[in-house]
Amino acid sequence: MKIHQLSVFLENKPGQLVGPCRKLAEAGISITTLSLADTEQFGILRLIVKDWEKAKQVLKDAGFVVNVTEMVAIEVPDRPGGLAEVLDIAEQGGINIEYMYAFTDKLGDKGVLVFRFDDPDKAIHVLGAANFNIIERVDLFNRLGIIS
Question: How many CA atoms lie within 13 A of 59 on its CB side?
């Protein structure tokens, strides 16, 4: 039920972001969703792609520092208060959210958020018990219509 995210570490200066994006494009790898965070010295490009193992190798071969993180994708009601419901359950369950971001595509009337929890297995258990749909990797890409 976990999704693999690639974190690519980049210097925080002009022109650094295009490198990994270009390498993935040349390898025929499409970015499904991403997040970019920065500090004064470096940035972290967080990516979810269908073939994460190939993408990791492509980026490493190109000289990028890449880490793999387990993420949890959850369907969230796309209405006012939908996210607050998930956050309430996480808080009640003692689950720490390290960061999160959203997919741009929706699944029907639901938004899809990707969470980095301090304990992904506990989060899956607690949120699943509260009837939130935890999206499996294969199901996510199939439902988003991502074939390559």
Answer: 27
Q: What domains does the chain contain, in order, with CATH numbers? A: 2-69 (3.30.2130.10), 71-143 (3.30.70.260)
Helix intervals (H) in the chain: 18-26, 52-61, 82-92, 120-129, 137-143
pTM: 0.84
Residue 92 makes CB contacts below 8 A (sequence gap 6+) with 126
Strand partners, 45: 8, 36
How many CB atoms lie under 10 A from the CB of residue 10? Answer: 18
User: Do 107 and 49 form a contact (C-beta atoms < 8 A)?
Assistant: no
What are the tokens at 139?
Answer: 């199901």
Report DSSP state, residue 119: S
pLDDT, tens digit only, all 148 positions of the chain: 789 999 999 988 888 999 999 999 999 999 988 999 888 888 999 999 989 999 999 999 999 999 999 999 999 988 899 999 999 999 999 999 999 988 777 777 788 889 999 999 999 999 999 999 888 776 766 666 665 4
